[in-house]
Design brief:
The complex is a heterodimer of chains A (594) and B (605). By secondary structure, chain A is an alpha/beta fold. Chain A contains 22 helices and ten strands. In chain A, the strands form two sheets. Chain A has a six-stranded mixed sheet with strand order 6-7-8-3-9-10, sandwiched between helices. In chain A, strand 9 and strand 10 form a beta hairpin. Chain A is elongated, with a radius of gyration of 37 Å. Chain B is an alpha/beta fold and 605 residues long. Chain B contains 21 helices and twelve strands. The radius of gyration of chain B is 36 Å and the shape is elongated. Classes of the chains: A alpha/beta (594), B alpha/beta (605). Chains A and B meet through helix 3, helix 4, helix 6, helix 8 and helix 9 of A and helix 3, helix 4, helix 6, helix 8 and helix 9 of B.
Chain lengths: 594, 605
């Protein structure tokens, strides 16, 4: 929960750069509202003169003068109306843009754990619906508030100047309005919340029903579910009507208050008009003013609603803005760590890792070294912690201190950005952006300055895409006009993307499982030749053990523990998990071939 | 959930011409169902229109008959009549708002109900093609925006139209030439409305498109965030996002600009007409051809004439959004349902089955397009009633597809499936058959609610069968950890996978199916659960034809016949021992399985 002053402070913080726009908007609004006093006065003048002329007491002066005044006022108002709208609202749009911008920057800094806790829908809604609600508080909300205030500042005093008695008579019924508003507002607030709750139920039920549709069909419960949905829906209708009973009272009440003023004017002030102590023109002007008073009353209610909605949304946005960011660097001075000459390229020492909120460690006391330019495969049973290890290396989880060492220095102390620069990563789940194929590959590399096609084709070749690349138009967006890639092709594009980085360490997290076995061999072959020329170190998670014969090192994991380490040939000779897995692989290969 | 997916930007362009048709042909029948309510609402509109017409006239009369002739005695009656009329008007307005809200709510409720009914009877491929989020959006969000049309749109707009029309006619009746002066700016106003209306429509459309672009960019960035971080591409993507965000702001400001020109123009024109009225009216009253009271009431009328016109233009956007939603809803309502199903019937005919099954030349693929692959190829087999059949195969062999075909989740393209000698594609209602087939999924889907609700699935008929189950079967649910009133969280999150399996078993058994399909769980279960499932299986398999998608060695040995699927073909069939001696695919699968069980303790093929 944030307080009223905090909300205003945050809103002010965002509005500050557009101070001038907001100020000018409010100024022009002020002018419009004060000019609004004049037309009834013109009317009064006119009627008074006309009735005098009717009585023959005075010659009716040509009212060209009045007409000109009236038109001038109207033109002035129109111009100011244009300006307040443009300035005030434009300011609010700019603020919304800034909020979106801040929010997005923040998103980019949040760790994967944040994304596991929040659904995409909710996160998107914050950038659109909630931002819009905040904008409403600042644009239309401020507008109606200022508008209503100016109206109330200008009209009642004018009435009192015109006639004390009439002012009092006509305004008296309106005194009850704020009282009624606050009562009804409270009712509305309560009932609105109930409606929202029921709405969530409606959503949740629909969602669950559709997720379980197979079970519903299998158990022929289509109608049972429909009847249950109907019950929730009927309750939703009932609550909505209850809300409407409070909400629908607003407008008629305002109108009634104004009419009451008019009637009391007629009954009690009519005599004065007849007696001549109040002119007919004044009386007519009063009727016009009273009509104008309906709006500010509605406006106050509106501004409260806008503010409340804006506040709730702002709260939600601020919650994200205050989330803990990925640790960029634990200690400031570690920006450039000199590599220690004799230290291994990568070393893991006593690594134990437990996920937040879990009691069982996923990895327990892991120790291994990886030499520069070597190729390491990580294999193991399902749920053995392989992927967690890889994700720790890639900096996708917060790395515990003093457990992972890069050329002798603590990896966790290196700024995240630096760390990531050292690693090219091919994740398990293939994700390509809806941009061109070229863009998707180059986003890894020296983007945005594009290297030539020759270099790009070289990358594609190394990823085993040389045949396919020939028939692809690299400048078509993904999914556009027939550029639909198969799963295996997509996986290889993600490999090309990682190769474009040209980082010292290349990590493949089971990325080639959707590629056919022959192509996989070719890719691994390419990568192994490169090892010599590029001095790139390779770590690979895989289930296909049959392709690992020329790897330098195999790490075998089971239930979070590193149980075997060694050269593939040696491991294959000794009894143990690796040999078992190899045998399983052999049978699976046979099955797939037959 | 409240976001449009990018695919949704399409229909808007198609929409325009169809609005009228959409309203009269599709929405209207929903409204006529509440004829009485609609008539009541309309009469209230007429009443309030009448009241808003008569009040200014009475005011004018009060000026003419009481104020000017100086008859103070008449003031009170006039005041009284006016007050009564005002009070009645306020009351009528209140009830008018309410009745329109009720009408809208009821219509929307019916629409929602119809749409869910449609979903319930959609063929399964619709669910494979449409993300659940989209279907839920149609069901909940789009109907809500239609609701706005009824509550704040229809009531106000209808009222406004009546008031405008009423005033114009009444002004003409009261004094034709003065009336003409009042509406003289209408043609200019119409011109500007048309001009700005088009601009506003266009910019609003651009703005909506920019918004869906923004949504698409956001969705993509959020899903791909870890990649962006890994490749240190925050800046690049921030720039991209910035562009779409700025684009959106730009279109919003454009819309704003149109409004900023349009609204003051309309207000100015109404002031102009007021001036004309005063001018000409003053001229007339000086010549004594109209009374001063008439002039006063004309001024009041003019005020009531122009504020609705401003309203109508503002409601236009609301209307457009509602109609877009409406079109989407009806698009989903128009999609074809499953074949061989009679959705209107809430009660399903009973059917008694022996449970013999025959597949004749069954081939299947998920799409009938040329290149799509066959998932099952020319299956032929015959199963007697009461047989226990195991289905095995390597990943992707088509096991699940086979049982889904038996459930009639998909329609056959080639071949026939006979149950009790009758072709299942000739049953009049698929639900009759489904009722007799029990299906236990590998990962059972549970609803949020109590254990009891999940067992009986909101149908009390199963309770008798539940009572007749042996004690051991009922025990965990009567006194054990799964007592009937226990609350289950969404998707059974507070239960272990074993407990979820137990509920799935019981809920299938209380349906008393003739054919039982069981996709064995692969997750590890504690020994107690394991034992319970073993016992209940023995109980459940009696007198039933049973299909088991088998992942365990124990099951493989206990079934009477095993069907071995490989790449969608039935390659081997027989008992465990005969198949094993064949040394074919089954032997390999068995070897793989036994090794895996030894290795992981987690059975899995």
């Amino acid at each position: 929960m944030i307080t009223f002053s905090q909300t205003l402070k945050t809103l002010y913080h965002y509005a500050k750069p557009y101070k001038r726009e907001f100020a000018f908007g409010i100024l022009t609004l002020f002018i419009v509202d004060f000019l609004q006093i004049l037309p009834p006065l013109v009317l009064k003048e006119f009627i008074d003169r006309a009735s005098l002329a009717l009585k023959g007491e005075k010659h009716f002066s040509p009212f060209l003068w009045l007409g000109v005044a009236y038109i001038t006022i109207a033109i002035g108002q129109s111009i100011c109306r244009y300006f307040w709208r443009m300035f005030l609202m434009r300011g609010s749009f700019k603020v919304a843009e800034k909020i979106r911008d801040d929010y997005f920057s923040k998103l980019q800094k949040l760790p994967p754990s944040f994304y596991n806790r929040n659904t995409i829908g909710d996160l998107m809604s914050l950038a659109t619906n909630d931002t819009e609600a905040v904008r409403f508080a600042l644009g239309p909300g401020l507008l109606v508030l200022a508008d209503a205030t100016f109206f109330l500042m200008s009209i009642p005093p004018t009435l009192f100047i015109l006639s004390y008695k009439l002012a009092f008579l006509s305004l008296a019924p309106m005194l009850m309005v704020p009282f009624i508003i606050t009562r009804i507002e409270k009712l509305i607030h309560e009932r609105f919340e109930k409606v929202q709750n029921q709405f969530s139920k409606l959503c949740a039920f629909s969602q669950e029903n559709l997720e379980g549709i197979r079970i519903i069909k299998a158990f022929t419960r289509e109608w049972t579910q429909l009847n249950r949905f109907s019950k929730i829906g009927k309750e939703f209708v009932r609550l909505n009507l209850k809300l409407a009973r409070a909400q629908a009272a607003f407008d008629p009440l305002f109108t009634l208050a104004v009419s009451l003023g008019l009637v009391s004017l007629l009954i009690f002030a009519g005599k004065d008009v007849i007696m001549g102590s109040i002119s007919l023109g004044t009386f007519a002007a009063f009727t016009r003013y009273l009509d104008q008073l309906v709006w500010p009353m509605t406006a106050f209610g509106l501004s409260v609603t806008y503010y409340q909605r804006g506040k709730t949304s702002l709260e939600r946005i601020c919650q994200v803005l205050q989330e803990k960011e990925e640790n960029k660097t634990s200690e400031g001075n570690a920006f450039s760590i000199p590599s220690q000459i004799n230290a291994p390229f990568l070393e893991v020492r006593h690594l134990t890792f437990t996920y937040l909120g879990s009691s069982r460690p996923v990895l327990q006391n892991i120790n291994f070294q990886i030499q520069k330019g070597s190729r390491t495969a990580i294999v193991g049973t399902i749920g053995s912690g392989k992927s967690t290890l890889i994700r720790l290396l890639a900096g996708l989880h917060e790395t515990p201190p003093h457990m992972i060492f890069w050329e002798g220095s603590d990896f966790s102390k290196l700024p995240l950005e630096e760390r990531r620069k050292k690693i090219a990563f091919v994740p398990q789940d293939v994700f390509l952006f809806r941009e061109t194929l070229r863009w998707n590959i180059l986003m890894g590399g020296p983007f945005p300055e594009m290297k030539g096609d020759v270099w790009l084709f070289e990358l594609l070749k190394r990823s085993g895409l040389d045949k396919e690349a020939g028939r692809w138009n690299l400048d078509l967006k993904m999914g556009e006009r027939g550029l639909t890639l198969s799963g295996g092709e997509r996986a290889r594009v993600t490999l090309a993307r990682a190769l474009a980085v040209d980082a010292p360490l290349l990590i493949l997290d089971d990325a080639l499982s959707s590629v056919d076995s022959h192509t996989e061999s070719e890719i691994l072959h390419h990568l192994s030749h490169e090892k010599l020329s590029r001095n790139q170190t390779l770590i690979l998670i895989t289930h296909r053990l049959s392709k690992l014969w020329d790897f330098d090192q195999i790490l075998v994991f089971k239930e979070g523990v590193l149980i075997q380490t060694g050269m593939p040939l040696n491991l294959a000779k000794t009894p143990g998990l690796y040999r078992e897995l190899l045998e399983l692989q052999r049978i699976e290969d046979e099955l797939a071939r037959s | 959930m409240n976001w449009q997916d990018p695919d949704d930007s399409g229909p808007e362009n198609r929409l325009r011409l169809k609005v009228f048709e959409l309203f009269t042909k599709r929405l209207w029948p929903y409204i006529t169902k509440y004829r009485k309510l609609f008539i009541v609402s309309l009469s209230l509109v007429f009443f309030t229109t009448g009241a808003s017409l008569s009040i200014p006239w009475l005011l004018g009369k009060a000026v003419d008959l009481a104020l000017l002739p100086k008859k103070a005695a008449l003031l009170l009656p006039f005041g009284f009549i006016l007050l009564t009329l005002d009070a009645l008007n306020a009351l009528a307005t209140y009830f008018q708002n309410l009745s329109f809200t009720k009408l809208g709510q009821e219509v929307i409720h019916d629409l929602r109900q119809d749409l869910l009914k449609q979903y319930q009877f959609y063929p399964l491929h619709e669910f494979n093609q449409n993300p659940i989020g989209r279907l839920v959006t149609r069901l909940v969000n789009d109907t809500s925006s239609l609701q706005d049309l009824f509550t704040s749109g229809l009531a106000v707009t209808l009222g406004n139209i009546c008031v405008v029309a009423g005033i114009i006619v009444w002004l003409m009746v009261l004094h034709p030439s003065l009336g003409l002066i009042c509406v003289s700016v209408f043609p200019i106003m119409a011109f500007f409305s048309r001009f700005f209306g088009r601009r506003i429509r266009e910019t609003a459309r651009d703005s909506r498109q920019a918004l869906s672009q923004l949504n698409a960019t956001l969705a993509e960035n959020i899903s791909g965030m870890s990649l962006i971080q890994i490749f240190n591409r925050q800046k690049t993507f921030h720039d991209l996002f910035d562009r779409t965000s700025k684009d959106y702001t730009r279109t919003q400001i454009k819309t704003l600009e149109s409004f900023a020109y349009f609204q003051p123009t309309i207000t100015f024109l109404s002031s102009l007409s007021m001036l004309l009225l005063i001018w000409y009216g003053g001229f007339l009253s000086l010549k004594n051809s109209i009374s001063l009271g008439m002039l006063v009431s004309f001024m009041a009328y003019l005020h009531s004439l122009y504020s609705p016109i401003r309203d109508i233009t503002e409601k236009y956007n609301l209307f457009l959004t509602a109609m877009t939603s409406c079109e989407r809803i009806f698009e989903f309502l128009d999609r074809p349902l499953e074949k061989q199903i009679r959705p209107q019937e809430t009660q399903i005919e009973k059917l008694s089955l022996q449970g013999s099954i025959e597949f004749q030349n069954v081939s299947f693929r998920y799409s009938q397009e040329k290149e799509s692959l066959w998932v099952l190829v020319n299956l032929n087999f015959c199963i007697e009633a009461g047989e226990k059949i195991g289905i095995v195969g390597y990943t992707g062999a088509g096991k699940t597809t086979l049982v889904h075909l038996l459930m009639q989740f998909y329609d056959l393209e080639q071949g026939e499936i006979l149950i009790d000698g009758k072709n299942i594609s000739e049953t009049s209602d698929k639900r009759m058959l489904r009722q007799k087939i029990g299906y236990i999924q590998q990962e059972p889907f549970l609803f949020s609610g109590t254990v009891e609700e999940n067992i009986f699935l909101w149908d009390e008929k199963g309770r008798e069968i539940f009572q007749a189950l042996p004690d051991f079967a009922r025990a965990p649910f009567e006194s054990g950890p799964l007592f009937l009133k226990k609350e289950i969280f969404e998707k059974g999150a507070n239960l272990s996978s074993g407990e979820r399996q137990m509920i799935a078993f019981i809920r299938t058994l209380v349906q008393n199916p003739s054919i039982l399909i069981l996709d064995e769980a692969t997750a590890h279960m504690d020994s107690l659960t394991e034992k319970w499932i073993e016992r209940i299986s023995k109980e459940a398999f009696q007198n039933r034809t049973v299909f088991i998608i088998a992942h365990r060695l124990a099951t493989l040995k206990s079934v009477s016949r095993i069907l071995v699927l490989h790449h969608g073909e039935l390659v081997e069939m027989g008992t465990h021992s005969t198949l094993l001696s064949k040394k074919g695919i089954y032997a390999k699968l068995y070897q793989l399985q036994s090794r895996k069980e030894a290795l992981e303790g987690t059975p899995r093929i």
